[in-house]
């Protein structure tokens, strides 16, 4: 048996719709909605009325807070009902938490909670809609099936009453009964039309319920934004910690080790200075070479933290410097009317740097290009190569880390990398000049 509307094709799907599992569940949802909504409406209105009347005393505050908590409980039940009968999962709002402990703080947090007031609003406004939905659904369902099955049960009228059939209307001494073959056939056809239309009527009614549950009983846009910012903050913290560990490791394994060896060489040269000046000179010459290497490593490390050329000359010069170090020829085009915010400029630089590193290490490309431009209030970056393709941002690679870093600042990373067709990565960042 078909379990939903729209599955299957053509006439078969339309004929199965009245007996599909989805139709029965939606009917049950609408019929159950009236008694539940009546309970919600009665308790909510009574509670708010009592709480508002007691606001002249302290008792009104805990009453109103209790009513809001009760309405949040109603919302939890409604989301569960929608999940079971409509097959739609709605996320619940964030829990109401008081910054400080104590009953007064908890009541204050509940009274300040926007989601709690939206639950109260749902308890009130859903009642008239539940009455309408109940009446329409029940009317269509019973009328459609009754008329559709009329040829089966119309015999009860002549058998148990003095009427030849179902009386359609009466005007004085004239009465019209559905008793002739033509009338019975017409009744059957009308019932078939109503029965076939009922699933779509139920679907339209429950669509409104879905909107109400999602809009009033789910998390608000502000809650979603807070969750995104919290997630982005976690990504930023993790990225900063990883960068600090990398810097510490580079210093320990690179410049620090060379400077320690340099100190030992200079100490040895000092000891040999009077006994063997030539040997001391050779040691000093070697130490001089170590100093140059250590300085170069420190410059590279500083460039990895924040390159001076980016601060002094902007993205165009900084990205040209990065492109010059790439293993393949890179064309750089930067078309910006002004410099974006320093933080955005830094993220753009490191994004291009990492993408060009991927080109050098993994792409097997012959050439690449970097284009940077401004569109509205967004900074757009596109890095393309003619390599082997097949890059996947969701495979736990460096592209996944870039995606998280850009998400933390409301950015976006889109990867187009068909196998054998090259790779094009487009990054979008806020301008924030």
The helical percent reads: 55-70%
Largest sheet: 5 strands, mixed
Strand order of the largest sheet: 3-4-5-7-6
| Portion in beta strands | 5-15%
Tally of alpha and pi helices: 14
First and last CA, distance: 60 Å
Describe the structure.
By secondary structure, this protein is of the alpha+beta class. The protein has 3 domains: about 10-215, no CATH class; about 225-305, Single alpha-helices involved in coiled-coils or other helix-helix interfaces; about 315-430, Histidine kinase-like ATPase, C-terminal domain (Heat Shock Protein 90, 2-Layer Sandwich). Helices cover about 65% and strands about 10% of the residues. It has helices at about 10-15, 20-55, 60-85, 105-110, 115-150, 150-155, 155-160, 180-215, 220-270, 275-305, 310-315, 315-325, 340-365, 400-405; strands spanning about 165-170, 175-180, 330-335, 370-375, 380-385, 410-415, 425-430. The strands form 2 sheets. A 5-stranded mixed beta sheet has the order 3-4-5-7-6, with helices on one face. Strands 1-2 form a two-stranded antiparallel ribbon. Strand 3 (about 330-335), helix 13 (about 340-365) and strand 4 form a beta-alpha-beta unit. Helix 2 (about 20-55) crosses helix 8, helix 3 (about 60-85) crosses helix 4 (about 105-110) and helix 3 (about 60-85) crosses helix 5 (about 115-150). The radius of gyration is 37 Å and the shape is elongated. The model has no long low-confidence stretch (mean pLDDT about 80).
């Amino acid at each position: 048996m078909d379990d939903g509307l729209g599955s299957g094709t053509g006439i078969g799907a339309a004929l199965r719709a009245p007996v599909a599992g989805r139709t029965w569940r939606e009917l049950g949802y609408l019929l159950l909605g009236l008694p539940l909504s009546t309970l919600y409406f009665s308790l909510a209105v009574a509670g708010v009325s009592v709480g508002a009347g007691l606001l002249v005393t302290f008792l009104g505050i805990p009453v109103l807070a209790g009513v809001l908590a009760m309405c949040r409980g109603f919302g939890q039940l409604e989301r569960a009902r929608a999940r079971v009968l409509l097959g739609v999962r709605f996320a619940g709002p964030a829990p109401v938490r008081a910054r400080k402990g104590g009953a007064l703080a908890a009541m204050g947090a509940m009274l300040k909670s926007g989601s709690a007031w939206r639950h109260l609003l749902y308890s009130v406004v859903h009642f008239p809609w539940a009455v309408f939905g109940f009446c329409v659904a029940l009317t269509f369902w019973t009328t459609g099936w009754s008329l559709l099955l009329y040829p089966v049960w119309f015999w009860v009228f002549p058998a148990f009453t003095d009427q030849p059939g179902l009386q359609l209307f009466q005007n004085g001494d004239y009465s019209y009964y559905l008793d002739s073959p033509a009338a019975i056939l017409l009744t059957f056809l009308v019932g078939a039309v109503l029965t076939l239309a009922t699933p779509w009527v139920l679907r339209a009614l429950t669509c409104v319920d879905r909107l109400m549950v999602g809009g009033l009983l789910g998390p608000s846009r502000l809650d979603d934004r807070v969750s995104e910012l919290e997630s982005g903050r976690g990504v930023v913290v993790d990225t900063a910690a990883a960068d600090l560990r990398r810097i510490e490791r580079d210093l320990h394994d690179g410049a620090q080790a060379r400077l320690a060896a340099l100190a030992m060489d200079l100490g040895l040269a000092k000891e040999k200075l009077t006994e063997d000046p030539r040997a001391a000179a050779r040691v000093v010459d070697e130490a001089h070479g170590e100093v140059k290497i250590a300085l170069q490593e420190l410059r590279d490390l500083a460039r990895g933290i924040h390159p001076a050329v980016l601060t002094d000359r902007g993205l165009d010069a900084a990205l040209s410097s990065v492109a010059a170090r790439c293993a393949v020829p890179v064309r750089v085009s930067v078309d910006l009317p002004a410099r974006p915010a320093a933080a955005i400029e830094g993220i753009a630089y490191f994004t291009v740097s990492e993408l060009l590193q991927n080109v050098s290490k993994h792409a097997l490309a012959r050439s690449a290009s970097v284009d940077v431009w401004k569109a509205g209030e967004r900074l757009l970056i596109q890095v393309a190569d003619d390599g082997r393709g097949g890059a996947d941002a969701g495979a736990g690679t460096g592209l996944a880390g870039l995606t998280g870093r850009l998400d933390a600042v409301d950015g976006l990373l889109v990867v187009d990398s068909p196998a054998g067709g090259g790779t094009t990565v487009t990054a979008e960042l806020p301008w924030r000049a």
